[in-house]
Amino acid sequence: MYDKSIITGWLILLLFSLAGCNHSTSEKTANIMINWNKLPDLPGMADTASLGVSAPFTGISNGMLLVAGGCNFPDKPVTEGGAKKYYSDIFALDLSNPAGGWKKAGNLPFPVAYGAAVTTPEGIICIGGNNSDTFFPDVCLLSWNTTDEKAEINTLPSLPAPMDNLSATYTDHTVYVAGGNENMLPCNSFLSMNLTTKSNWVNQPDFPGAARVQPVLVAQKSADGVRIYLAGGFQPIQNDTEAIVPHDMLSYHPATKTWRTESELPLFKDGKHRTFTGGCAVSYGDSSILLMGGVNYDRFLAAVNRPKLIEAAEAQGDTTLVKTLQEEGKTYMHHPVEWYKFNTALLQYNTFTKEWTDLGDYEPLARAGAGAILKGDSLIIVNGELKPGIRTPQVNLAIIE
User: Fold this and answer.
1) Half-sphere CA count of 241, side-chain side, radius 13 A
2) Taking the chain, what is the end-to-end CA distance rounded to the nearest angstrom?
3) Burial 16-25 (b: 16+ CB within 10 A, else e)
4) Cβ 387 vs Cβ 374: under 8 Å
5) Rounded distance, CA 151 to CA 235, Å?
């Protein structure tokens, strides 16, 4: 995941004011059935082993599940000094015949990960991202050509500046992007592009509060019209300010061009905060959004703030605390998967009643940097990290009944 901060000997790789409405953070349990199945594992990129990737572009076009780009550590684990590799490969899976397996469908113009992708009636809009050398403003339309049986790429207007670790959504013929890094700096940016005219990107009002790197963004109907919901993400350490991991959800009203605080994210049963940083969100039906995956709030916040805590302990001459924090940093990447507590919960938010519903805990959701696509009542989870540095090639399908 977020890979821009060298933290004293280790690499973190996971990486508001109310608007006058009634808010509800009550959570209830749903009486629904979710059946999980496995789709074929994603093949290895660039003829490497099938290890899975993090932060690829994912979506559906003409009945084909497309996965493009992403990154992993193909040669040896990051804990052994392995180098991250970025990919340009595009793979396609026919969802009407998944037993037929994945097929190589082409290549992106360059290797890339950590961009944003959103499925639209025209295809998949792939936005921004980065690789080890470059940060990209590029935007393209990725679609499946049913005649030639391959992926097609058409260039769209570029972002005003390079952006990565952002999120995107689509509604009313318009693509929106929010958060991430802009020109390699954490941002509160919010932009839109009309997909009918394919005109240049337009700066919309910045979202309030902390910057949000690796947020989730999703559009859905509400009592006062379509709203765009923003949750998760984090603001890294900035000068003398510790990192911030917001635990609320904002919403934007395109008709009035205003933001508001929509809701606090439900607490865990033990009273601790949660986040969807590095997670996924999709619209469900005409009145709900589903949020899932991402890192654990406490584990992640402690990791990204550790350099600041070490600095403070050194200033106070607390050598014992300095040694403890440094040791935590050295061992951070070496814990088993379960220690990181990636989110297993599937939460539903009703955009009309503002109620949260817990749809249960499911291991296939415990991913960071995965792709999530909803097709009818089928939720598809593509790859992602099991823990920092370790991907999975699994593609899981949940049927919501």
Assistant:
1) 9
2) 32
3) eeeeeeeeee
4) no
5) 36
Phi/psi at 86 (nearest 5 deg)? -105, 150
Would you state the structure tokens that stand for residue 55, as one six-digit string? 């932060």
Two structure tokens written together for 324? 């403890």
Q: Which residues of 166-194 are buried (b: 16+ CB within 10 A; e: fewer)?
A: bbbbbbeebbbbbbbbbeeebbbbbbbbe
Kindly state the tokens that stand for 187: 């941002």
Q: Cα separation of 86 and 8, whole Å?
A: 25
For residues 52 and 120, give the distance between their C-alpha atoms in angstroms, rounded to a whole number: 25
DSSP per-residue letters across 47-81:
G--S---BS-EEEEETTEEEEE--EE--SS-GGGT
Q: What's the count of helices (H) and strands (E) in the chain, helices before strands?
A: 2, 34
Pick from 332, 349, 232: which is nearest to 288 by CA? 349
Backbone angles phi, psi at 333, to 5 degrees: -80, -5
Contact between 243 and 236 (Cβ < 8 Å)? yes
Query: pTM of the entire structure?
Result: 0.92
Q: Does domain 41-400 have CATH number 3.40.50.10400?
A: no
Give, for all 401 residues of the chain, the pLDDT tens digit.
Answer: 444 333 333 333 333 222 333 333 445 556 688 999 999 999 999 989 999 999 999 999 999 999 999 999 999 999 999 999 999 999 999 999 999 999 999 999 999 999 999 999 999 999 999 999 999 999 999 999 999 999 999 999 999 999 999 999 999 999 999 999 999 999 999 999 999 999 999 999 999 999 999 999 999 999 999 999 999 999 999 988 999 999 999 999 999 999 999 999 999 999 999 999 999 999 999 999 999 999 999 999 999 999 999 999 999 999 999 999 999 999 999 999 999 999 999 999 999 999 999 999 999 999 999 999 999 999 999 999 999 999 999 999 999 98
Q: Would you call 340 exposed, middle or buried from its count of C-beta atoms within 10 A (0-12, 13-18, 19+)?
A: buried
Residue 166 near residue 139 (C-beta atoms within 8 A): no
Two structure tokens written together for 69:
């780009």
Q: Which segments of 148-224 are extended strands (E)?
A: 150-156, 163-164, 167-171, 174-178, 181-182, 185-186, 190-194, 202-203, 213-222
Nearest-angstrom CA–CA distance, 206 and 196: 24
For 357, residues 6+ apart whose C-beta sits below 8 A from its C-beta are: 27, 28, 29, 30, 347, 348, 349, 350
Tokens of 240: 């003398």
3-state secondary structure of 20: coil
